Amino acid sequence: MKTKVYFYSNKGSNRFLANRIANDLNCEIEEIKPRLNAHMLMMMGINLGNRKLKSNCEDYDRIILCGPIWMGKLIVPLKNFIKKHIDKINNLVFVTCCGSTFEGKDKKFGHNLVFNQVKELAGEKCNHCEAFPIVLVLPVELRDDSSAFMKTHLNSENFKGEIVDVYDKFINKFTDNKK
Ligand SMILES: Cc1cc2nc3c(=O)[nH]c(=O)nc-3n(C[C@H](O)[C@H](O)[C@H](O)COP(=O)(O)O)c2cc1C
């Protein structure tokens, strides 16, 4: 299956995750660039759209879209991406390295809220959603400490342990010769 990873990242965790996925699936990757790349303004809903992509989504069998969650919402650059390209997307997989935990996935800022927004926009084209909670790289005693996880960013040093277990299952699911 010809796959492409598109990502947006502000602090680097989703950049790391997207690059890792593209590397392991041996596929192309492209960064989504909002015309106004100002995190606070985008969070307030100011939306000037994204810059034009260098590639065409219809050239791929599967699109993996990767980016963070802010305030329980599908963030502006990712929402713009889905709305603009959904007609040309054959199969969409949404992944996020986020702050919310598996236990908190249905709570106010939980990732399931965002998964539902993606499914609403993409309909049946949304094949799968996967969360990689950043707390999984922290020791258990720091996982409820919001200041600890807000300061933590995924990188090659801390990408180990539980988060890798989740990641390996994800990659196995999308490695074609294992399907
Ligand atoms: C202002 C702000 C709001 C956030 N809100 C949420 C949220 O509602 N739910 C969640 O799961 N994570 C939330 N997070 C955590 C981010 O999704 C997480 O830190 C993510 O890994 C950042 O990705 P990046 O490093 O690629 O920018 C928030 C982070 C920031 C900075």
Structural commentary:
This protein has a single domain (3-178), classed as Flavodoxin domain (Rossmann fold, 3-Layer(aba) Sandwich). Helix content is 32%, strand content 18%. The protein contains six helices and seven strands. Strands 2-1-3-6-7 form a five-stranded parallel sheet, sandwiched between helices. A two-stranded antiparallel ribbon has the order 4-5. Strand 4 (69-70) and strand 5 (73-74) form a beta hairpin. The longest helix has 13 residues, at 162-174. It starts with a strand and ends in a 5-residue tail after the last helix.
Secondary-structure element series = EHEHEEEHEHEHH
- The backbone outline, from C-alpha atoms, is globular
Decide which structural class fits the backbone.
Answer: alpha/beta
Total DSSP E strands: 7
What is the CATH-assigned architecture?
3-Layer(aba) Sandwich
What value does the Rg take, in angstroms? Answer: 15 Å
The major sheet is characterized as: 5 strands, parallel
Q: Give me the number of helical elements.
A: 6
Q: Specify the CATH class.
A: Alpha Beta
The CATH homologous superfamily name equals: Flavodoxin domain
Distance between the termini: 11 Å
On the 0 to 100 scale, the average pLDDT is: 95
**Amount of helix:** 25-40%
Task: Name the poorly predicted regions.
Answer: none
Q: How many structural domains?
A: 1
- Beta-strand portion reads 15-25%
Give the neighbour order of strands across the main sheet.
Answer: 2-1-3-6-7
Could you say what the CATH topology is called? Rossmann fold
